[in-house]
Structures are given as C-alpha cells and as structure tokens.
C-alpha cells in the first residue's frame, strides 16, 4: 500500500455499475491526456466491490490525478453519497 493513498467509500444508493463506470471514465480521461502505457505504469488502485471501497495510490502524479477526477465527478454526480 502507498504512503499517500486516497480512500473512497460509496454509499449503497449508488449502483455498482455506476461506480465502475465512474472509475472507467476517470481512466479514459487520463488515457486521453497521458496515454495507456503511462497510465498503466503510474495508476494503481483496488476496488472492493463487496465493501464498495476504492483505494487509489497517490504516490505518482497520475495516481493523484485519478483521485482528483474521481472526487470531482463523484461529487458532481452523487454529492453526499461519495466520501473521499
């Protein structure tokens, strides 16, 4: 685990498919900006579907940006249901 991790807990009101789509969309944004290879090397995260928890490692620029994008989109779409 990273020393600078970002932990997200998603409320049960948000369907799992929506959470996965949010993560995928954030990765698409990063892929568009930096390319697939760099994203694969610098973005590390785990999503525990049963606990509805997302852990994003923030030791790299792209890891921090992934957390920022998820925070921004999650707040915009779901406001109170996403705690980061």
Description:
The chain is of the alpha+beta class and 84 residues long. It has one domain: Alpha-Beta Plaits, CATH 3.30.70. Helix content is 52%, strand content 20%. It is built from three helices and four strands. A four-stranded antiparallel beta sheet has the order 2-3-1-4, covered by helices on one side. Strand 2 and strand 3 form a beta hairpin. Helix 1 packs across helix 2 and helix 1 packs across helix 3. The two termini are 17 Å apart.
Q: Please state the structural category.
A: alpha+beta
Helix tally equals 3
Given this structure, which CATH class is correct? Alpha Beta
CATH-defined fold name: Alpha-Beta Plaits
Oligomer state equals single chain
Helix content: 40-55%
Layout of helices and strands:
Elements: E1 5-10, H1 16-34, H2 36-42, E2 45-48, E3 53-57, H3 61-78, E4 82-83
Antiparallel strand pairs: 1-3, 1-4, 2-3
In short:
The protein has 84 residues and is α+β, with helices and mostly antiparallel strands. The chain has helices at 16-34, 36-42, 61-78, and strands at 5-10, 45-48, 53-57, 82-83.
């Amino acid at each position: 685990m990273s020393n600078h991790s970002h932990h997200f807990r998603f409320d049960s009101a948000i369907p799992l498919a929506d959470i996965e789509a949010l993560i995928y969309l954030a990765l698409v944004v990063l892929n568009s900006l930096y390319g697939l290879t760099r994203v694969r090397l610098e973005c590390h995260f785990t999503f525990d579907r049963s606990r509805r928890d997302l852990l994003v490692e923030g030791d790299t620029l792209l890891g921090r940006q992934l957390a920022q994008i998820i925070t921004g989109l999650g707040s915009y779409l779901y406001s109170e249901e996403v705690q980061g």
